[in-house]
Amino acid sequence: MELLSYVVRDAVPSYLKNVPIPRSFGGFFNLSFKEWIHLVTFSAAVGGAGYLAVKPYYDKYADPKKEVCFNHDIRKDVEKVYDIIDVEDLGEKTNFCRCWRSKKWPFCDGSHNAHNKACGDNVASLIIQKKQTSG
Ligand code: FES
Protein backbone atom coordinates (compact mmCIF):
# COMPACT_ATOMS: atom_id res chain seq x y z
CA MET A 1 0.00 0.00 0.00
CA GLU A 2 2.90 2.26 0.80
CA LEU A 3 4.37 1.72 -2.66
CA LEU A 4 1.04 2.53 -4.35
CA SER A 5 0.70 5.65 -2.24
CA TYR A 6 4.24 6.74 -3.15
CA VAL A 7 3.64 6.15 -6.87
CA VAL A 8 0.29 7.97 -7.00
CA ARG A 9 1.07 10.84 -4.62
CA ASP A 10 4.76 11.46 -5.23
CA ALA A 11 6.41 9.74 -8.19
CA VAL A 12 3.79 10.31 -10.92
CA PRO A 13 3.07 13.97 -10.06
CA SER A 14 6.78 14.64 -9.80
CA TYR A 15 7.36 13.06 -13.20
CA LEU A 16 4.42 14.89 -14.80
CA LYS A 17 5.68 18.19 -13.41
CA ASN A 18 8.84 17.70 -15.47
CA VAL A 19 7.10 16.90 -18.77
CA PRO A 20 7.88 19.92 -20.97
CA ILE A 21 4.34 20.74 -22.12
CA PRO A 22 4.27 24.41 -23.15
CA ARG A 23 1.57 26.70 -21.78
CA SER A 24 0.82 28.04 -25.26
CA PHE A 25 1.05 26.75 -28.81
CA GLY A 26 3.94 29.10 -29.49
CA GLY A 27 5.82 27.48 -26.63
CA PHE A 28 6.42 24.42 -28.81
CA PHE A 29 8.83 26.51 -30.89
CA ASN A 30 10.90 27.32 -27.82
CA LEU A 31 11.46 23.71 -26.73
CA SER A 32 15.00 22.40 -26.84
CA PHE A 33 15.88 19.19 -28.66
CA LYS A 34 16.10 17.34 -25.34
CA GLU A 35 12.65 18.65 -24.32
CA TRP A 36 11.21 17.52 -27.66
CA ILE A 37 12.63 14.02 -27.12
CA HIS A 38 11.12 13.99 -23.65
CA LEU A 39 7.75 15.20 -24.94
CA VAL A 40 7.67 12.72 -27.84
CA THR A 41 8.67 9.84 -25.55
CA PHE A 42 6.03 10.82 -23.02
CA SER A 43 3.36 11.17 -25.74
CA ALA A 44 4.28 7.79 -27.23
CA ALA A 45 4.11 6.14 -23.80
CA VAL A 46 0.71 7.70 -23.00
CA GLY A 47 -0.62 6.92 -26.49
CA GLY A 48 0.68 3.34 -26.35
CA ALA A 49 -0.82 2.76 -22.91
CA GLY A 50 -4.15 4.20 -24.07
CA TYR A 51 -4.08 2.05 -27.19
CA LEU A 52 -3.35 -1.11 -25.21
CA ALA A 53 -6.09 -0.25 -22.71
CA VAL A 54 -8.75 0.38 -25.37
CA LYS A 55 -7.80 -2.23 -27.99
CA PRO A 56 -9.32 -5.30 -26.30
CA TYR A 57 -12.66 -3.53 -25.97
CA TYR A 58 -12.47 -2.15 -29.48
CA ASP A 59 -11.71 -5.60 -30.88
CA LYS A 60 -14.59 -7.11 -28.96
CA TYR A 61 -17.28 -4.52 -29.59
CA ALA A 62 -16.23 -2.44 -32.61
CA ASP A 63 -17.81 -4.41 -35.41
CA PRO A 64 -19.65 -7.55 -34.36
CA LYS A 65 -20.61 -8.25 -37.99
CA LYS A 66 -17.03 -8.09 -39.22
CA GLU A 67 -16.22 -11.09 -41.38
CA VAL A 68 -14.27 -13.63 -39.36
CA CYS A 69 -12.94 -17.07 -40.13
CA PHE A 70 -14.91 -19.78 -38.32
CA ASN A 71 -12.91 -22.81 -39.27
CA HIS A 72 -9.53 -22.66 -37.59
CA ASP A 73 -8.32 -26.22 -38.08
CA ILE A 74 -10.89 -28.68 -39.43
CA ARG A 75 -9.76 -30.28 -42.71
CA LYS A 76 -7.98 -27.15 -43.90
CA ASP A 77 -6.48 -29.18 -46.76
CA VAL A 78 -9.78 -29.37 -48.67
CA GLU A 79 -11.59 -26.61 -50.55
CA LYS A 80 -14.90 -27.11 -48.73
CA VAL A 81 -15.71 -29.08 -45.62
CA TYR A 82 -18.85 -31.12 -46.04
CA ASP A 83 -20.13 -34.35 -44.59
CA ILE A 84 -22.63 -36.90 -45.80
CA ILE A 85 -24.33 -38.94 -43.13
CA ASP A 86 -27.08 -41.44 -43.84
CA VAL A 87 -30.19 -40.75 -41.86
CA GLU A 88 -30.34 -44.43 -41.01
CA ASP A 89 -26.98 -44.12 -39.26
CA LEU A 90 -28.22 -41.47 -36.86
CA GLY A 91 -29.10 -42.73 -33.46
CA GLU A 92 -32.07 -41.63 -31.42
CA LYS A 93 -30.40 -38.27 -30.96
CA THR A 94 -27.31 -36.78 -32.60
CA ASN A 95 -25.60 -33.47 -31.82
CA PHE A 96 -23.89 -31.73 -34.74
CA CYS A 97 -21.31 -29.06 -34.13
CA ARG A 98 -22.09 -25.52 -35.26
CA CYS A 99 -19.20 -23.73 -33.57
CA TRP A 100 -16.38 -25.28 -35.63
CA ARG A 101 -14.35 -26.07 -32.51
CA SER A 102 -15.21 -29.75 -32.07
CA LYS A 103 -12.43 -32.34 -32.15
CA LYS A 104 -15.05 -34.90 -33.27
CA TRP A 105 -16.30 -32.90 -36.24
CA PRO A 106 -19.05 -32.96 -37.50
CA PHE A 107 -20.34 -34.01 -34.09
CA CYS A 108 -20.47 -31.80 -31.04
CA ASP A 109 -17.99 -32.67 -28.30
CA GLY A 110 -18.89 -29.79 -25.99
CA SER A 111 -16.04 -27.53 -27.18
CA HIS A 112 -18.60 -24.78 -27.78
CA ASN A 113 -18.69 -24.20 -24.00
CA ALA A 114 -15.03 -23.10 -23.93
CA HIS A 115 -15.54 -21.05 -27.08
CA ASN A 116 -18.59 -19.29 -25.60
CA LYS A 117 -16.75 -18.58 -22.36
CA ALA A 118 -13.70 -17.21 -24.19
CA CYS A 119 -15.53 -14.79 -26.46
CA GLY A 120 -18.95 -14.23 -24.94
CA ASP A 121 -20.71 -16.11 -27.70
CA ASN A 122 -23.79 -18.30 -27.26
CA VAL A 123 -23.49 -21.01 -29.89
CA ALA A 124 -24.39 -24.64 -29.34
CA SER A 125 -25.05 -27.78 -31.33
CA LEU A 126 -27.75 -28.72 -33.80
CA ILE A 127 -29.64 -31.59 -32.24
CA ILE A 128 -31.40 -34.03 -34.53
CA GLN A 129 -33.57 -36.58 -32.86
CA LYS A 130 -36.09 -39.12 -33.91
CA LYS A 131 -39.67 -38.13 -33.41
CA GLN A 132 -41.05 -39.51 -30.20
CA THR A 133 -44.03 -41.63 -31.05
CA SER A 134 -46.53 -42.47 -28.41
CA GLY A 135 -48.32 -45.72 -28.18
S1 FES B 1 -18.59 -28.46 -30.09
FE1 FES B 1 -19.33 -27.18 -31.63
S2 FES B 1 -21.40 -26.94 -31.14
FE2 FES B 1 -20.65 -28.20 -29.63
Are there runs of 5+ residues with pLDDT below 50, and where? none
Principal-axes shape call? elongated
Strands of the largest sheet, in order across it?
A: 1-2
Largest sheet: 2 strands, antiparallel
- Return the structural class: mainly alpha
Overall average residue pLDDT: 91
Portion in helices: 40-55%
Q: What is Rg?
A: 28 Å
Bound molecules: FE2/S2 (inorganic) cluster
Give the count of structural domains. 2
- What is the first-to-last residue Cα distance? 72 Å
Write the element-wise H/E pattern from the N-terminal end onward.
HHEHE
Number of helix segments? 3
Q: What proportion strand?
A: 5-15%
DSSP summary, beta strand count: 2
Task: Write up this protein.
It is a single chain. The chain has helices at 2-17, 33-61, 111-119; strands at 93-96, 126-129. The chain is mainly alpha-helical. It has two domains: 2-61, no CATH class; 87-129, Ribosomal Protein L9, domain 1. Strands 1-2 form a two-stranded antiparallel ribbon. The longest helix is centred in the middle third of the chain and has 29 residues, at 33-61. It is elongated and about 90 Å long. The N and C termini lie far apart (72 Å). The relative contact order is 0.08.
